[in-house]
Specification:
The structure is a single chain. The protein has one domain. The chain has seven helices and two strands; from the N terminus they run H-H-H-H-H-H-E-E-H. Helix 1 runs antiparallel to helix 2 and helix 4 runs antiparallel to helix 5. The radius of gyration is 18 Å and the shape is globular.
Length: about 170
């Protein structure tokens, strides 16, 4: 599969997963709309490449201001902040819903959406050691595409499967 076809395929999976997430059994709650919005934003980023434009913009600033050589340290700080922020959001979500006893299906899809966001954030940082690993070819495709497809597939499955009733 060519990179352009893989990109289009990924965008289609994002959009399909967004529709299934929003469907949520006819429940148009705040959680459903927020998750669908995040997935739609990720699909938009994949189409337009906002994260690449932003990273290129930061690279140009770093080159012009002379701190490009210190980027490894800054990328590590950014990675730490991304992971810490996503974990903090997950804890706030867990605390807010612990009183309501959410079903396993809702919790799993939210957790895997957060994992997808961490993955996309770390991929956007483009450390060379991360890029080298993600460029690895497995089953004829880059491992970066396969990881993203698997995460989207798990989110899709968590949204699509029948609701498990809590007992």
């Amino acid at each position: 599969m060519s990179p352009e076809l893989a990109r289009i395929f990924t965008i289609a999976i994002y959009l399909l997963t967004t529709l299934v997430w929003l469907r949520d059994g006819g429940n148009w709650g705040r959680r459903s709309i927020l998750g669908g919005g995040v997935l739609l934003l990720a699909a938009t980023d994949r189409y337009f490449g906002f994260s690449h434009v932003f990273c290129d913009f930061l690279r140009e600033i770093a080159l012009k201001q002379g701190w490009y050589e210190a980027r490894r340290w800054l990328q590590s700080i950014a990675a730490f902040l991304i992971i810490t922020g996503i974990v903090a959001i997950a804890f706030m979500y867990a605390m807010a819903t612990s009183r309501k006893q959410p079903s396993l299906r809702i919790s799993a899809r939210a957790i895997f959406l957060l994992v997808l966001l961490v993955y996309c954030g770390l991929r956007a940082l483009s450390n060379h050691f991360i890029d080298a690993w993600l460029a690895f070819i497995f089953v004829g495709q880059r491992i970066s595409w396969i990881i993203e497809w698997l995460l989207l597939g798990i989110i899709f499955w968590c949204c699509y499967r029948p609701v498990l009733h809590d007992r």
